[in-house]
């Protein structure tokens, strides 16, 4: 199909995006976000063209200062001659599907220069987020942005996964209200490569740091430190004043260097691909299962279950056999 | 598939003060199922164009409260034209009747007064976006 005549609109937009045209990058991001055949086409084009862009996840509780810190990091990266992009993910309202995406205002004065910031709503479909985010990160990397930073609220499993499968994951906690303990519960400790205690201008910051140190001290009990091979550093920051951003970024860069020096970067990327492929297979299967259940034979099975003639387990096994026999 | 979600940028041009009204509009558009990219205060035509490109916005909502609308809104429309972005601009705020026609002539898609009910605000945005999608 590689003839000139089959050149689709997606191809054309991709060409412009790869040449650095921002509007085209913006369009591609909408296409991958919508999902479907066109999104797959974009993934086909961007896959393998993402170069060596450093993918950085920033996560933490709502209001921890992730966007403010990201804004400071981006300013620092630009000053160092980098060309960063940010994907800021915020929750959609489960009731209406609408969202207020307000991360940009925290990164205010940066929209100029060669910084690309995109806001993305979770749109209720959590499975979709797990596909849309990696696809969007690839678009940004293929357009030549490096690093590519993704901000997510560290509450839902998918959001934690999304940030946790980055090359480097920064977990932001704040003083008071047991934030470090909450982060532990939310599974954020497992994914952290760098900790930031933000709002360090507030009372209790050193207590929070100590809580984190204690939890890290204990992590050998769970085997976590052996799996990680490295104790994550803790950096204090006051993102509102910009204090600490340089140190945070230095630790992010150091983490990547550590990954490379210890042959772990490829492993991270492999587990990321594995995760994505798995989610995609699940989605494909889900559609197949729905189709199977809607078909007359599926309907018959369901009727038998409802009538008490067949157990749900037996019906499921039959359906799976049908599914495997289908192609 | 259903229509893609409407993505609208909300901003206040120029130097004037508070964004309470803009926040109210942000909430009501969200409650109508739209994705509101909130840019807040002190935006310029250039910063809005840059955000519109990156966010692939379907519409731009501008709030104005002092007499700047006659220069600022047309400047916004012109900046979009220069960037070859066909995105409808909707102006909200206190605009004297005699200025509404001037804004429409300058290419503003719609003007909403401060008392416009929620349904009207939502409806005006939907119609402006529908029109663009059907012609674009
Ligand atoms: N005192 C203080 N306030 C901060 C600091 N960093 C951020 N803030 C404030 O905390 C609030 C939330 O900051 P954001 O950057 O929007 O936080 P966020 O984690 O991105 O929030 P969500 O995206 O809504 O989850 C804002 O009012 C910031 O001004 C800091 O270091 N010190
Ligand atoms: Mg944020």
Q: Can you offer a commentary on this structure?
A:
- The complex is a heterodimer of chains A (327) and B (136).
- Chain A has 327 residues and is of the alpha/beta class.
- Helix content of chain A is 54%, strand content 12%.
- Chain A contains 14 helices and eight strands.
- Chain A has a seven-stranded parallel sheet with strand order 4-2-5-1-6-7-8, sandwiched between helices.
- In chain A, helix 2 packs antiparallel against helix 5 and helix 3 packs parallel to helix 5 (126-142).
- Residues 1-6 of chain A have low confidence and may be disordered.
- Chain B has one domain (7-135): Cobalamin-binding domain (Rossmann fold), CATH 3.40.50.
- Helix content of chain B is 47%, strand content 22%.
- Chain B contains five helices and five strands.
- Chain B has a five-stranded parallel sheet with strand order 2-1-3-4-5, sandwiched between helices.
- In chain B, helix 2 packs across helix 3 (69-82).
- Chain B is globular and about 35 Å long.
- The A-B interface holds A 22-23, 25-27, 29-30, 34, 36, 92-93, 96-102, 104-105, 111-112, 116-119, 121, 123 and B 1, 4-5, 7, 26-27, 29-40, 46-47, 50-51, 53-56, 83, 85.
- The complex binds guanosine-5'-triphosphate (GTP) and magnesium ion.
- The site of guanosine-5'-triphosphate has 18 residues of chain A, from helix 4.
Overall shape of chain A: it is globular
Strand content of chain B: 15-25%
- Percent of residues in helices of chain A comes to 40-55%
Question: Helicity range of the residues of chain B?
Answer: 40-55%
- For the biggest β-sheet of chain B, the strand order reads 2-1-3-4-5
Q: Whole-number radius of gyration of chain A?
A: 22 Å
CATH class identity of chain B: Alpha Beta
Q: Please, how many domains of chain B?
A: 1
Which protein chains make the most extensive interface, counting residues with beta carbons within 8 Å of the other chain's beta carbons? A-B, 28 and 28 residues
CATH topology-level fold name of chain B:
Rossmann fold
Basic shape of chain B: globular
CATH superfamily of chain B: Cobalamin-binding domain
């Amino acid at each position: 199909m590689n003839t000139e005549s089959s050149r689709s609109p997606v191809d054309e937009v991709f060409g412009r995006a790869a040449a650095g045209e921002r509007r085209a990058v913006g369009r591609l991001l909408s296409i991958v976000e919508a999902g479907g055949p066109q999104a797959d086409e974009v993934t086909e084009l961007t896959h393998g063209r993402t170069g060596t862009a450093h993918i950085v996840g920033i996560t933490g509780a709502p209001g921890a200062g992730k966007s403010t810190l990201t804004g400071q990091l981006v300013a620092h990266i630009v000053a160092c001659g980098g060309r960063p992009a940010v994907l800021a993910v915020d929750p959609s309202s489960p009731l209406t599907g609408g969202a207020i995406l307000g991360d940009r205002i925290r990164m205010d004065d940066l929209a100029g220069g060669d910084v690309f910031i995109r806001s993305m709503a979770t749109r209720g479909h959590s499975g979709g987020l797990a596909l849309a985010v990696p696809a969007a990160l690839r678009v940004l990397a293929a357009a030549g942005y490096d690093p590519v930073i993704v901000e997510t609220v560290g509450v839902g499993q998918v959001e934690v996964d999304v940030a946790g499968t980055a090359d480097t994951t920064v977990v932001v906690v704040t003083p008071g209200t047991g934030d470090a303990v909450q982060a532990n519960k939310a599974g954020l400790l497992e994914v952290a490569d760098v900790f930031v205690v933000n709002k360090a201008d507030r009372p209790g910051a050193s207590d929070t740091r100590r809580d984190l140190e204690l939890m890290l001290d204990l992590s050998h009990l769970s085997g976590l430190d052996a799996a990680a091979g490295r104790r994550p550093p803790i950096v204090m920051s006051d993102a509102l004043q910009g204090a600490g951003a340089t140190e945070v970024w230095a630790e992010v860069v150091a983490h990547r260097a550590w990954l490379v020096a210890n042959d772990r970067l490829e492993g991270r990327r492999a587990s990321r691909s594995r995760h994505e492929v798995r989610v995609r297979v699940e989605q494909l299967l889900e559609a197949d299962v729905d189709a199977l259940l809607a078909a007359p034979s599926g309907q018959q099975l369901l009727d038998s279950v409802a009538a008490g003639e067949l157990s749900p387990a037996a019906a499921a096994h039959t359906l799976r056999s049908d599914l495997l026999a289908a192609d | 598939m259903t229509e893609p979600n409407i993505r609208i940028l909300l901003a206040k041009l120029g130097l004037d003060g508070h964004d309470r009204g803009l926040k109210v509009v942000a909430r009501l558009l969200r409650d109508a199922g739209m994705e509101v990219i909130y840019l807040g205060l002190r935006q310029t035509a250039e910063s809005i164009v840059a955000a519109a490109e990156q966010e692939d916005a379907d519409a731009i909502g501008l709030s104005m409260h002092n007499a700047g609308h006659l220069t600022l809104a047309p400047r916004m429309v012109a900046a979009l034209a220069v960037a070859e972005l066909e995105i409808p601009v909707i102006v909200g705020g206190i605009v004297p009747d005699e200025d509404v026609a001037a804004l429409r002539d300058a290419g503003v898609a719609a003007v909403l007064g401060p008392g416009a009910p929620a349904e009207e605000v939502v409806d005006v945005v939907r119609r402006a976006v529908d029109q663009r999608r059907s012609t674009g």
